Q: What sequence folds into this?
């Protein structure tokens, strides 16, 4: 908030509304003043927002005539909204950094395991073979799409807010637009068409982008938890000491993934609160705006924590390719049913092929035999590695897109 | 779903996987087959999704060899997800049309009432004067930003989904990528980097864009409801017969605004459901995906209804400029307190000016006199029309942006 | 709504406000009139609620003087709110019936599998042995608690609403309280202290009780999905034809559990919408009330569907006790680590015991040996059946509570 | 958490599992040990919950053999869940106290203003007269129902949780049930039928009861905000200095009501998170349980803040009965339209009466005359005080219920 007040004063000077020396004095006070948050909170009770007491403290800290120009042209909401944008930018930078590291880890996994065959599972039933490389590639694409989205939000959604008491900037006379433009430029925030005090698209979009990011992280985390199960055990978190249980020393809980998921699960309700706050009354809301403050911080904090946890989980992930192969054999060939059907379709037609394989599967289950054994004489059951479709090609596409995003980001 | 199956068959032909004549036969059956939704629903109980019985009916409707190529390469989720994108596009087109009409109405109001002075209200207390033109301009910008956002979602977020049983497109051999590209092209949907069956960023973003749109509409609707109050009465909905009460014939309820608000209020919870469904298990979700189906339809329906209601409310809105002026006088000049303070600041300094005006206001309230009367001899209370800051300039900016968006949309 | 209008007329007669014959005529018309919902919806657009056109149709269907007494004393909201309570009661009855059947099935499972040992899993890692009887008992208690809760809501939360235009029942003169009492009695709904038109505790509590029920069902469903995984395979849904896949004939998806979970996952957002609608404006809400209508229906429908699916899943559940036993051996004894620690604690103290077992576990994992083998000479690894604590006793408690609830319900 | 560990040790002694002296030593350490929350948080990262490091610190603080009995029989979740119940009880006590004071204030307002006539407003349009006493009575009933509900939750929903690693209490041998019973008794919490580690009805119900309370408070707050509007001005918050604006000294914002509303608006999303967390995996959740922790605290904090703000708003509320009367005249008699219709119904029939009054209302609006003037010669327009129905009787009922609740609470 002090950073905002400082930029405001300098912008007023830019537009000729406040003497340069006075603006410098205010900006200087803003950069040195130390605020006690607890006391500020206490003093905010009467006015319902923390800007009034903050301005009081700031004014007291500025000497002479300059004091009269503190908070010039602004209303409390201008300061809080713009400060929220600045804080959000810092939060996004932290999230983007962790997501970048996580994406790099996913890219390494995708590349290293392009040929690693494992069971694809739909509705948690083994369905057909996939590669772990493809699974990691789908994590990679989700992380990269989240990064691109958040970068766009950072650039275009975060905007300065300056409207004065009711959006007309009346106390700045005819210099309002000039001050607002300078204000946005100084803070390196987007300049909106008009003040957005009760048009809450920006905080709402910021919130939904955070929520979508957390959701994508949560989806990866859920995969990790499921692949870490005792009965599946295809991946494990690598952190030493990680996941220790107080009473069961043998357990290796997927603590990072579970924690990421716990953070992610808390975000949809917070996004709903932000969307729900969008209908705001006339020139300043009576409740909705105020309900955004902590909610947005919480969203940023939780998405940031989720990003950090998934970064840790992915960078340290241990892959058991042997177990992947073994699990694929659990169904005694049934996981190749679609493959057999596909191979028989040309000769028998799809309907007859499907029926034949269905009968074979049922017989295999009932008699405890492998599908290959049951179908021996009729057809062969191919090896899983021969039924991976374009998994490799898809991994290439994901890696290429990752490379392209990295180049764009570094520009 | 039939449209999707048709495009799939033709795409398989494009990629040389299915004979052209067979594909044409399937596409032809898709365009003529009539499905009984209730019966399809009943038949879906066993499989948990409607695609299995749909494919059965479609296969039965296709003669000869071609029948064997129905649903080639796809899994149920491919069909449902892609169909959801097609339905969403139609819904977005309807929403965009109504938003466009509503924005035009807001633009007319902003232009016509550029000089119409009214009370700006913060926390529902009269604060400083604004113009109704500026209020309408802020509605306009919100509607136009929603339009731009939804148009972007329509173009870039809606994408084809084709991955086969677990994302490898294995049953298409090495032709998977070619078929998927043709599939997206034929349906005029974006082609994703890789299949997104359990990476739910697209439906989630679609949902949040709808929710943000509904929120913006709800905010305008709330303004209309508040300005229509018996005690405020600055605007009224113009529809004839609209708002009649069964027992109170004198009432003129803001039915369209109330209905828009009711629709909007139902969207945040649905967006939360969509975000909450993002963590999906491995290669197909066990619950989360299925929870998206009706939720997304509901979101589109409610946002569409909200758009229609706000279009009706804005196009027929009746403005009582006389009443706006009268309400501005309700506080006997107190609404000009900030203006007086601003005008005194240069001579007295901000602190002293603030104190003097505060005392004057208190005295005016206690003695039931006008602020001008109390301050007579000290300073003048200017007319509200002289304290509108850059309201006019902001209206221009909003109108210019609206014009630019219109030109872009018509390209 | 017609049922409500009928009861209202008769209650007015009970209180001497309307001639008995007229009331009978109205009640008779209410029981025979057929309404076209689509047309009613169309006619509702102008007034924003369906009661105005309904009353118009009803009035036209009543002959002579009696027509003048239709809707006597009531406002639209009275009719809609009370009708919502009646519809909810029917919905609750259906939910309660399905939950009762599901609970009986859980009780049978708990009883039959009191001694069936399986792995207890925390954070999806095998932890210590439990019994399947205890797992089923925990489902049973959740279902029974939901039943008791919903029965309480049905009895005490569902209430008649009659307040007239603004809660004073003014058009009934001094007979308002008498009419309202008769109205509640005739509909067998609770009589509230005062009208609750803008005090939305009742619909909100109804909603949260439905949401809590759906959540409990979802938790059982999630257990079933997890225990049905290919790699766990301890339970399976028994429905014939159930869970068939279009392309993978070998799969047996847990369709009922997945569907129950999908329904459950959609309820929290709807409950949030109901809670969010609680702040309602003065004597009738401008948006919040209207947002409750479909939301409440949807909640009842989804909770009802979830109850039906879980009933089907539990009544047909197939248990593989052999597989449970095998899975318990997957960790080569590590699942007994806590048991060994406990048994060593008396002689070594807890710290030393814990350290010894931890070392043993690590060695077992690294050398691929069983824990028993590693600890041979030091201590014995007991059989899982000897480390079940009070599982049996807890099953008894659950069954006893179920029996008691059944007796209470049948009174 | 330390309180829980202490009670656990003593309960183990009660059941003969731990020597009394050892239990006393542990309990004593629990009451004196000081934990650094930040450090505990840091140490929790590896295990994903704070109980493991807490137990480590506690064990170190207990001398000799007793140390071996720390945390005996319990798992981390037992400690966290039970601690959450204890914290919630303290929170409920604070909420209940503030709600009690608020209800008393509402009761005083209802009693004092039984005869104070004001406009009843539906959809924010003046509809028919009501009394401010009745409005206050409806606030009173909502507050009292919330109190009764929370008291019930405090008594019956808050329960001890003790299940050990997976719900069997295996490490306590056959003494598990005895220890659990003693544990609940010592903490004065309800004893559940069986452990509820993954049956989350209790935290979910606690959450929804808090959310419903916040919703009821929010509804009162919204009324206060609306009645405080500059154009309505029938009530004002009385706090001195309260509601001051930094730039508009004349404003008297309804800060307490706005703050209460802001708190309330944040609760539905949090309740949704709690409900959403209900489906928990097998014997301990991988994410859902962890997502409850801060969410529940936040809900209690926000509901508590809302209760405090509404207490302040109601106890200091200033009522302007003169303004209420003036506002009632704003419609020039139209607010009495229903009354006139009712009085004419006996002679003309309802249809004809309605039409006559409707015509009169339209004429009055168009010609700017009072309804009385327009209808002169046809009928009289009665005084609002004569059209209040059973408002007085309803106030009595609310006051009587308040008295009864107070007596019950003091028992």
A:
């Amino acid at each position: 908030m002090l950073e905002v007040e400082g930029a405001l004063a300098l912008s007023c000077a830019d537009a000729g509304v406040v003497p340069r020396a006075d603006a410098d004095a205010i900006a200087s006070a803003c950069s040195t003043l130390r605020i006690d948050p607890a006391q500020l909170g206490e003093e905010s009770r009467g006015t319902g927002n923390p800007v009034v007491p903050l301005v009081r403290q700031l004014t007291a800290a500025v000497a002479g005539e300059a004091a009269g120009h503190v908070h010039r042209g602004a209303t409390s909401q201008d300061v809080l909204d713009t400060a929220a944008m600045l804080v959000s930018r810092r939060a996004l930078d932290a999230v983007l950094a962790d997501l970048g590291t996580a994406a790099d880890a996913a890219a390494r996994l995708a590349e290293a395991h392009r040929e690693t065959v494992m069971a694809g599972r739909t509705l948690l039933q083994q369905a057909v073979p996939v590669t772990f490389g493809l699974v990691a590639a789908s994590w990679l694409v989700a992380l990269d799409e989240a990064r691109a989205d958040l970068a766009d939000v950072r650039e275009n959604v975060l905007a300065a807010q300056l409207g004065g008491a009711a959006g007309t900037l009346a106390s700045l006379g005819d210099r309002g637009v000039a001050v607002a433009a300078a204000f946005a430029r100084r803070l390196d925030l987007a300049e909106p068409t008009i003040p957005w005090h009760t048009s809450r698209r920006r905080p709402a979009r910021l919130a939904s982008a955070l929520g979508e990011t957390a959701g994508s992280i949560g989806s990866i985390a859920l995969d990790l938890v499921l692949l870490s199960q005792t009965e599946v055990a295809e991946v494990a978190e690598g952190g030493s000491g990680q996941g220790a249980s107080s009473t069961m020393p043998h357990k290796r809980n997927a603590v990072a993934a579970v924690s990421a998921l716990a953070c992610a699960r808390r975000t949809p309700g917070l996004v709903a609160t932000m969307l729900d706050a969008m209908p705001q009354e006339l020139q300043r809301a009576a409740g909705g705006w105020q309900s955004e403050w902590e909610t947005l911080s919480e969203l940023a904090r939780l998405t940031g924590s989720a990003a950090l946890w998934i970064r840790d989980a992915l960078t340290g992930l241990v892959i058991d390719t042997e177990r992947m192969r073994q699990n694929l054999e659990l169904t005694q060939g049934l996981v190749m049913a679609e493959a057999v059907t596909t191979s028989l379709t040309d000769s028998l037609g799809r309907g007859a092929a499907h029926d034949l394989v269905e009968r074979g599967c049922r017989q295999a289950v009932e008699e405890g035999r492998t599908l290959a054994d049951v179908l021996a004489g009729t057809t062969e059951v191919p090896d899983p590695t021969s039924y991976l479709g374009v998994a490799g090609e898809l991994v290439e596409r994901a890696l290429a897109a990752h490379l392209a995003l990295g180049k764009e980001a570094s520009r």
Remarks:
- The mean pLDDT of chain D is 95.
- Chain D is about 65% helix and 5% strand.
